[in-house]
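REQUEST ID: PR-0412
SUBMITTED BY: lab tech R.K.
PRIORITY: routine
TASK: structure prediction, single protein chain
INPUT:
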Amino acid sequence: MKRLLIQCGLLIFLSMSLSSCYKDVIMPSVASTAPPQFVSFSSDLQPIFTTNCALSGCHVSGSQVPYLSSGLAYSQLIGGYVNTILPTKSTLYIMIYGDMSVHIPSASDKQKIYDWIRNGAPNN
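STATUS: complete
OUTPUT:
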């Protein structure tokens, strides 16, 4: 009987512990009514990716995809990480405001990426 009570107690404790674990991602409200600013991928975005993302063990060739090193970043991002029809549904947009927000903390850098997507993600 004592063993049954201990097992029930452990089961209740585990179920309460596991049910309380969740990750809350708060997406920012972006003013999509303002027209997007011109953003150059090569001169505005690539330096952001090179400085913050294309580091050893992160988004360099042979490590985490997408590879964001110079020369690879554009083709990697266009290959499924950018949605120009619904920019806020882009994987890139969701990641820079979610899990990867600590790596790109600057709001102006995030806005550049968002504007680039809204402009059709040109290779310029």
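NOTES: The two ends are 73 Å apart (CA to CA).
REVIEWED BY: pending
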